[in-house]
Specification:
The complex is a heterodimer.
Chain A: H1 2-25, E1 29-36, H2 41-53, E2 57-64, H3 68-78, E3 84-88, H4 89-98, H5 105-109, H6 119-124, E4 126-127, E5 130-131, E6 134-146, H7 147-152, H8 162-172, E7 180-182, H9 191-200, E8 206-208, E9 214-216, H10 221-235, H11 247-255, E10 259-265, H12 268-274, E11 282-285, E12 299-306, H13 312-325, H14 328-341, H15 356-359, H16 364-376, H17 384-400, H18 406-422
Parallel strand pairs in A: 1-2, 7-10
Antiparallel strand pairs in A: 3-12, 4-5, 6-10, 6-11, 6-12, 8-9
Helix pairs in contact in A: 9-10, 17-18
Chain B: H1 2-7, H2 13-39, E1 42-43, E2 52-53, H3 57-62, H4 66-87, H5 89-99, H6 104-117, H7 120-131, H8 137-144, H9 159-164, H10 173-183, H11 187-195, H12 200-211, H13 213-228, H14 232-237, H15 249-258, H16 266-294
Antiparallel strand pairs in B: 1-2
């Protein structure tokens, strides 16, 4: 009994001293983190716990409006970049090529959990054998629909094909109440959603050559088919009348119950709920199958990256926190906390040792959509950061001018991209 | 003691007073211009600034870009529309105000100033509602007048007009400047004109406008400069769309530099900025030279 008591006392003393011991070993370091204004309070609470366990690390947390990950590039340019930040997979390629991300391969090779991450996500943050980020969450692009509007219109379930989607959009479009069938992104980053329709039509916008160079396939018949489908949606008045509406405006209209259907990322569920949408009205499904019978869409997500221009001590501290954020316990706690708040985002988990359906309850229909995404999801088209804007302009052109011939427009876009960007690759 | 005398002398003291302003102007106005020119000579690398020195290659590259040419065409159209739609409104408003002979001048002056107090972003939100093809009042009025339904901002042919048209409300500081200039016209000239049988229109064209010509020229130069630099309105209304129809040179500079997917081409965007700078400088010089010659 005496021995046990002494052992327990010694154990408690050691636990209490462990944090102090770490602090005593390591020099105090402050790391700068940008976080979103609308960040979930769960992360703040967890940061306090992390700091208690790692007292030598303190945070200078800066709140940013909008997406801090998208602002990271500007931050580097003007010398005010954070030490590390969470950014979207969509910008990773551009950031790697700009040389503004620290390679993390050495950290990764010594990471005890490295084999518990889904390989696809690691590939998305790698280039030429180097790893430049740690995947945090995966957001598959799904097909969102408003269950309440569908029920009012007498429609059972989401459309299964492009033709069905067109018919459903006609039924859901009611200009007299400013309700329309489909949200189309036609003002910015148009290539983002357009690429899914190209894939569903059986083609792609570009091809990666064995030597890593790029071949443009803007005139692929699948591209033209997708473009004609876009024109059809607009010609029949089934999309928002204001095609200059930006991405945030489209999501707000969907949350306001003004739109029947739109591409919808899994992490927008909580966003739509915060905008006042009833979570029970958010339907998620695989995309309608295109002419090639495919329902392919992208899997995006966010990833932790570290600024290469900071000291080694700061990089080490950032790495410690990143490991904490992507740990099994953390991610499990995060999703359970979301469930307690009433809206779980049906994400694709980056870790293979956690299954979302085993830690929270999600809508069974979401599970079907997630499984489809896991099987059919892929990374965005190769070279998006290099030639994406030419596709963006081409899509805007064919949507704004319904008399424009898609083949001519995309052929011109390909020629322009080749002349302005690709020559000399 | 001699040093004190020197610094407090009448020749030195004025310079000490203007020195802070001068330093501020040099540092916040001229230094960025010089630095932008410097950056434009590089293939700017934000990871290892400034990157590779490429002389004027950025300038040669940008003139080959289709988006650069389109942006210039759009910007010149913005200038033309601004002059036609909005330039003369403050002059007309000031002339009306100058004709009010009772105490209502102050009331109407205040009414004309108020639109200028509304922030641009709020104006944009209001006008986006007006121009909305689905529920906007613009289509209601258009149909009532028998002109039919338009997509306004979503129409490549109308988007620039829709962005500039809100300026037709006029008002603002320009009205007050014109009014002050009109009221400063010697009353004896106006009385003499009245005695000679000068009508209202004749008074405006032969007396009022010539006497405020100096201000009109200055305002025209300022309007030209601001129109050529236009960025806020196309950014907030349409982000340069649809299909680049409202992308001005200013917006192109912004997108080339700061769009998350633009690869931060600061060398290129600085070159575009310098071209715009020199163009505006040349146009301003031409205006002022022509005005001096006509005077």
């Amino acid at each position: 009994m005496l021995v046990l008591s002494i052992s327990m006392f010694a154990g408690f003393q050691l636990c209490g001293c462990k944090a102090e011991a770490i602090a005593a070993e390591k020099e105090a370091v402050e790391i700068v983190l940008w976080k979103q204004a609308k960040e979930d309070p769960f992360h703040d609470q967890q940061r306090v716990i992390f700091t208690e366990n790692n007292p030598y690390i303190t945070f200078d947390t800066i709140v940013r409006e909008g997406d801090p990950g998208n602002d990271y590039l500007q931050g580097v340019a003007i010398g005010s970049a954070p030490d590390f930040v969470l950014c979207s997979f969509a910008v990773i390629d551009a950031y790697i090529r700009a040389g503004i991300l620290a390679p993390l391969t050495e950290y990764w090779e010594n990471y005890e959990d490295k084999d518990k991450f889904v390989k696809n996500f690691i590939d998305m943050v790698s280039l030429d054998g180097e790893i430049y980020g740690v995947p945090h969450r995966g957001f598959p692009m799904l097909f969102g629909y408003n269950k309440a509007l569908f029920a009012d219109a007498g429609l059972e379930g989401p459309p299964k094909t492009w033709d069905e989607m067109l018919e459903y959009a006609k039924i859901l479009t009611k200009p007299e109440v400013q309700q329309y069938g489909y949200n189309m992104l036609a003002s910015q980053w148009c290539e983002w959603w357009f690429q899914y329709y190209v894939w569903q039509a059986g083609g792609d916008l570009t091809k990666k050559n064995p030597d890593g160079t790029l071949t443009l396939t803007f005139t692929d018949p699948a591209v033209i088919e997708a473009a004609e489908y876009y024109q059809k949606l607009r010609r029949e008045g089934l999309i928002q009348p204001d095609i200059t509406l930006n991405f945030e405006g489209l999501v707000k209209n969907f949350a306001a119950g003004k739109v029947g259907m739109m591409p919808f990322a899994s992490d927008w569920v909580s966003w739509a709920v915060s905008l006042g949408m009833n979570p029970d009205d958010i339907g998620l499904a695989p995309f309608p199958a295109g002419p090639a019978g495919k329902t392919t869409a992208a899997i995006s997500g966010d990833v932790w990256v570290i600024n290469p221009n900071i000291s080694q001590e700061k990089k080490d501290a950032c790495w410690e926190y990143i490991k904490f954020r992507v740990s099994k316990d953390y991610l499990t706690g995060f999703y359970q906390d979301l469930e307690a708040k009433g809206a779980v985002n049906p994400d694709v988990l980056v870790r293979s040792d956690i299954k979302l359906t085993e830690i929270v309850n999600i809508d069974p229909s979401y599970e079907a959509a997630l499984n489809n995404a896991a099987q059919n999801g892929r990374a965005e088209f190769y070279g998006k950061s290099t030639v994406g804007k030419y596709i963006d302009q081409a899509v805007q052109k064919i949507v704004s001018d319904l008399n424009a011939d898609p083949l001519t427009v995309f052929r011109d876009a390909q020629e322009l991209a080749t002349n302005e960007v690709l020559e000399g690759q | 003691m001699d040093k004190l005398k020197y610094f407090s002398s009448k020749r030195t003291m004025p310079w000490l007073f203007v020195l802070p302003g001068l330093i501020f102007t040099l540092f916040f106005r001229y230094y960025p211009i010089i630095r932008a020119f410097w950056i434009s000579l590089f293939d700017y690398d934000i990871a290892n600034p400034p990157g590779i020195f490429i002389w004027f290659k950025n300038y040669f590259n940008i003139i080959k870009l289709q988006e650069f040419k389109n942006a210039w065409i759009n910007t010149l159209w913005f200038l033309v529309l601004t002059v036609i739609i909005t330039f003369f409104i403050p002059i007309i408003q000031a002339i009306f105000l100058s004709e009010i002979k009772n105490n209502s001048t102050k009331l109407f002056s205040t009414i004309y100033i108020i639109p200028a107090l509304v922030p641009l972003s709020v104006n944009v939100i209001l006008w986006k509602w007006i121009w909305n093809p689905g529920y906007g009042i613009a289509n209601f009025i258009s149909k009532a007048l028998g002109f039919g339904h338009y997509t306004w901002l979503s129409d490549v042919d109308l988007t620039k007009f829709c962005i500039i048209f809100p300026g037709i409300i006029g008002g603002g500081a320009a009205v007050l400047l014109y009014l002050a200039a009109i009221l400063a016209i010697d009353k004896e000239i106006l009385e003499a004109a009245q005695i000679d049988g000068c009508t209202g229109w004749q008074k405006i064209f032969y007396i009022v406008l010539p006497n405020i010509k100096f201000l009109i020229v200055i305002q025209f130069v300022i309007t030209t400069i601001l129109s050529l630099q236009i960025l806020d309105q196309p950014l907030q209304f349409t982000y340069g769309g649809p299909a680049g129809a409202s992308t001005s040179v200013g917006l192109l500079i912004y997108k080339t530099s700061f769009d998350a997917f633009s690869q931060a081409r600061f060398g290129r965007s600085s070159a575009i900025g310098m071209v715009l700078f020199f163009f505006i400088a040349i146009v301003t010089l031409i205006y002022l030279t022509l005005d001096r010659k006509s005077s």
